[in-house]
Model the fold of this input.
Amino acid sequence: MPFVKGKSGNPGGRPKLDPEVKNLIEKFTPDAINTLAEVMKNKKGQAGARVTAALGILRKTVPDLSAQQIEAEWKNYVARLPAPAANTADWLASIGKTPNGGADSAGDSGGDGADEGEGSSQEVH
Done:
């Protein structure tokens, strides 16, 4: 049967809970949560049992975030990476170092290499 716009798919509403079941839920839920909390806090307990207890509490107390609409503002960032070096010596030279670990004769400017020219970097998105 197709969905009819403007008409409820469940005109009778949610079925009523059996009063006896409702009373049992009200009676034992606090104890169940306390038991889960005890298992979760027991440092000597099995890790799997502790995690299961924690998840049991969270599932009933924290809203389901997957059902929530989350608004976020995204920014695009561009990273400029140095051009690939053919070998270690070329790479060291491109960052102002010599193979012995010191600065080359031009000195170590400590810069980020952003002013090295158009051909020395690749743009990554």
Observations:
- Residues 19-67 form one domain.
